[in-house]
Amino acid sequence: MKLVDKSCREFTNVLSSKAAVPGGGGAAALVGGLGAALGGMVCNLTIGKKKYAQYEEEVKEILRKTEELQEDLLKMIDEDAENFLPLSKAYGLPKNTEEERAEKERVLQEALKIACEVPIKIVRTSYEAIKLHEALVDKASKLAISDVGVGVQCLRSALISGQLNVIINISMIKDDDYVKRVKEETDTLVAEGTKIADEVYKKVEAILS
Amino acid sequence: MKLVDKSCREFTNVLSSKAAVPGGGGAAALVGGLGAALGGMVCNLTIGKKKYAQYEEEVKEILRKTEELQEDLLKMIDEDAENFLPLSKAYGLPKNTEEERAEKERVLQEALKIACEVPIKIVRTSYEAIKLHEALVDKASKLAISDVGVGVQCLRSALISGQLNVIINISMIKDDDYVKRVKEETDTLVAEGTKIADEVYKKVEAILS
């Protein structure tokens, strides 16, 4: 059974256990998916309302994109779990001889890069979804404006959580070029993304008060 | 079927729809539940490890509490949906005569307070769970330290999201004493809770680098 098909209660219970998956990466992907879904909900509550007719086409386009990102993030829950398998296997390899140690290190280095893939995608996708909330906040039905705030807070959390899962993996990767490239990309997206998320949240707060 | 028993995929899909529930409150409760669960996971990965034997009893106690808060937050998903019903009913009442308008206003004011109940509890419970992460960060297995960071980010998001759902309801409540009391409590918990969450996150970052 896929993790994404588990009930919310079951997923949360397995998360809290010692089980190797889901871990922080899977939780981050789910929280990001919820954030994208909240953006979609706000679009759905805005579309068809006379008062917001002038934004109708733009909001429909934002909805199309939030649906795509939501689906991407939900898929990452299980993808992250699958990508953890090679790493888990690598840790189990023997290291009694010089050859075994060298082989283990080679396999481990490869597995670490695989384990990094989904967290990097979580950072990218959460950033994209935050940008969509930025585009949405001025065009959204005022009746649903608090949900733009909740959506952007979920995505801010997914963005930073994705980065934490990148960091824990690259801290053991010895390919300096790879580490530098990944670190630069994710650091930039997190710095920009949290800034935008905080601005969107402030707008929501201002509209609510 | 309870919302908490829906699959992660189904819950996220219904969230993105126009359906009245789940909304931002239910999403916040789930994200809070995931945050508490991550704290529990870190406890479970720390307990029994020789290296952290000195903290064993404290970590077991933290686990007991995260499990309780996780369960509380998961229950709030459906409780929030139930508490939305009176409000939804109140909006539907007629307002043709002076009497009808007065009655509608009376029922609405009551329903708004009911709708506030779970969001207030989400703020309180997320705050409690953030405090548990604060107690855990220095006693947690270093192998799971990134998950303390993910947990605290989820709870930070749930805390602020709970507050947003308080604000949108109290903005229409005319009982000034109630509004003042609720606002003071939640504002204080959010200000303190985000501060603590950010400190815990910085500690995690420092340990990771």
TrEMBL record, chains A, B:
Keyword flag Transmembrane helix: no
Gene Ontology MF term list: catalytic activity
SUPFAM superfamilies membership: Methenyltetrahydrofolate cyclohydrolase-like
UniProt keyword Secreted, yes or no: no
Keyword annotations: Coiled coil
InterPro entries to which the protein is assigned, alphabetical: Cyclodeamin/CycHdrlase, Formintransfe-cycloase-like_sf
Stretches assigned to coiled coil: 45-79
Domain of life: Bacteria
Pfam families from the UniProt entry: FTCD_C
Residue ranges of domain Cyclodeaminase/cyclohydrolase in the record: 7-187
Name of this protein: Formimidoyltetrahydrofolate cyclodeaminase
